[in-house]
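Re: Re: token formats

Sure, here are both.
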Amino acid sequence: MSLTGFVLAVSQTLKEFEIELLKRKTNSGMQTYLTLHEDCEADWLPRCDA
């Protein structure tokens, strides 16, 4: 899957959950930004049990 395809898939999925994926154009391409709520971090970030 290309980067463009991945961003489109993620943005469509987030739109279904009414979450906005922020995007802006930069000199080197597009920059995306997504804010996760504290209660979602456990689902998105890997856990480290050292």
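Second one below.
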Amino acid sequence: MDMMTHALELASAAAQAGEVPVGAVITDSYGAIVATAQNRMRRDNNALAHAELLVINAALQVTGQSRLVDCDLWVTLEPCAMCAGAISHVRLRRLYFAAYDQKGGAVDHGPCLFHQPTTHHKIEIYGGIQQSASEQLLTIFFGNQRGVVES
């Protein structure tokens, strides 16, 4: 199974539920899915319910560990500063993301967290994977929010 395609399916489901379309998958060192999540901020009435934080918490529960050292995160949007910080703290091995986020991203934009000398854990980063598919989901979602319906 293509993990970014799976994350995009989760993002699409989030959009159908009225959430910003972000989906996330964590895989183990063999590529098996450990946990999945999608944005739930509106449904949970919780600004911290980003897909990345939810999938990290789920993976920690599944593994029974306090770190995810040999795991990889697949997410449909460049993580924000909050999520990038969590990624560093749990020691994920690799981050794969689809769309770049010039406004709210903190990996390749904004604070570029993993490039800071004070960030103790360095992670492998691969951005732009299925970027156009993720951007299309986001464009349609935000267009609908503004009353500009696209298909």
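Helices lie at 3-16, 41-44, 51-63, 81-89, 131-145. Strands lie at 23-27, 33-38, 72-77, 94-99, 124-126.
- S.
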